[in-house]
Amino acid sequence: MPSKFAIIIPVQNEAECLGEVLSELKPLLAEIDRHEFVIAVGLNGCTDRSGEIATEAGVLVGESDRSGYGHGCLAAIDAALNVEPDIAAFVFYAGDGANDPRDIERLIDLYENGGSKFVMGLREFDL
Questions:
Q1: How far apart are the first and last CA of the chain?
Q2: C-beta of residue 63 within 8 angstroms of C-beta of residue 43
Q3: Residue 125 pLDDT more than 60?
Q4: Which CATH number covers residue 45?
């Protein structure tokens, strides 16, 4: 049985780019056929059309009245767990297009095969 993963996308006023992010993300997730995915957007203090755009894209939407990344994450997690309570892990993803969706499969592979309980990607890393 395939594992279920939730893609958690906290957003605050990302209407300008959220539609494009979701349009790019959904087909790439469909190509990873060994797993099931649910996408959940967590609105945190949004005053734009981000919620409408997410709903039109057919993804789950949670909402927090409070601003902040953490509140958006929790709203999205709640929305995902209300629909799919047996999610294996959460993948946190930027609603502004800062992440490369092709990295999701690599992160999941590390999670499953690397013996890690926590895997984190970095945009840039320099010591």
A1: 41
A2: yes
A3: no
A4: 3.90.550.10
Residue 41 located in a structural domain? yes
Burial class (CB in 10 A: 0-12, 13-18, 19+), 76: buried
The predicted-structure confidence for 38-64, as pLDDT tens digits, reads as follows: 999 999 999 999 999 999 999 999 999
Tell whether the torsion through CA atoms of 112, 62, 72 and 27 is positive or negative: positive
pTM of the model: 0.91
| Alpha carbon distance 42, 46 (integer Å) | 10
Closest CA to 84 of 6, 2, 25: 6
